[in-house]
Amino acid sequence: MRRALPKLAALSVLTAGAVLFSGGTALADTPVDEPDSFTSMFTVMATPDTVIGTNGQPAPGQPGATGTFNYRINSDEDVICYDLTLNGITGEYQSPARTATHIHEAAEGAAGPPRIAFPNPEGEGDTRTSSGCLQGPFTTGVMANGQDTGTGFTVRQIEENPSAFFGDTHTAEYSAGAVRGQLMAVPMGGVETGAGATEAGSTDAAPAALGAGALVAAAAAGAFALRRRAGRS
Amino acid sequence: MRLALALAGLVLLLAGCAGAAPDGPGRAAAPQAATTERVAADAVVPVSVRVPAIGVDEPEVLSLGVAPDGTAEVPQDYARVGWFDRTLSAQRAGATPADVPLPAGRGPTVLLGHVDSRRGPAVFFRLRDLRPGDVVEVGRSDGSVAGYAIERTEQVAKDTFPTFAVFGATATDVLRLVTCAGDFDRGARSYTDNLVVHAVRVR
Matching SMART domains, A to Z (chain A) (predicted)? Predict the structure, then answer.
């Protein structure tokens, strides 16, 4: 154990160095397997023109760069799965946080603290990607008011007000953010755009099944017409 | 048998596969408003749609959001087309439109319409007939018309619906039209699949 202590000290120095200079290490909160189900999903169109500096003033990011950040949340398990794609981002990542790719809490046009730090997207050429799932409690490596800015944060807070959060990534050249965008909820599952009267496209359905379907549809039609009128009044 | 069918019809009605029951379970209580009726900010949003190849000409499109059960809202009226308004959920939660602007010139624009009602074909019945190169014209709130060309059509199972491939943010201006397809599962009162038509901005 004693022999380990100097190593630990060295690690601390390294960590401090990372905080100051790179933030590019792939460390983040507890990586977990994808949960069986999700309670919500969000997407972000991250662009350079929406970046705000810590002083609250516009601080344009990298011209021509974009990010598409897709998040799937299970708020019962405090898990967030992420699929992050950056295009046109160049240079090294840099952030005082443990990584340089985050969800921050702030509305459009405002600056705010990071709540989750994701492993930075990596890849050859113009496109960089990062995917996985993290489970809270979350830590970002950034201290504010004597505690980590991830302290007390749960992904449920995103569900309660998604537009109060944004995704971004920071580089050495664009330390305030190379691209940024607010979270927007997207619907989950299939889209219920049919009621069955025509059984569209069911080329492999047996004629008998088609007949039964039409019969059920017919049975519903009368009552449905009433409902529809009521709905319009 | 007649009773059984009647009951089946009743269940179908109440559960509303097509989301037609305004007060049905899991559906938004908010009335559906056309984009033109929306208390709009300066954001440029779709207000009408024309698809000449399949005879669709809608002078108004509805604003649709995410239903309380997490699924996409669909038009209550089988004859109308809706647009997935990414700002609607936030607006209903109390945010002003200015707080949740749409990134200009970026996609996707997703249009949702029924393939059929319980009585016959609905507004997107012929969506399956669209072919690459066919044109979709989307009228917008600033008076401009955005032209899109069909690129491809895919049929996807609802239970593995590719959420982000349809609704996820895109850096370019793309359009997606969605309706139902596949077999009609009477037990689930729902089509098994969705038809997704992808189009790209051409003018």
Answer: CHRD
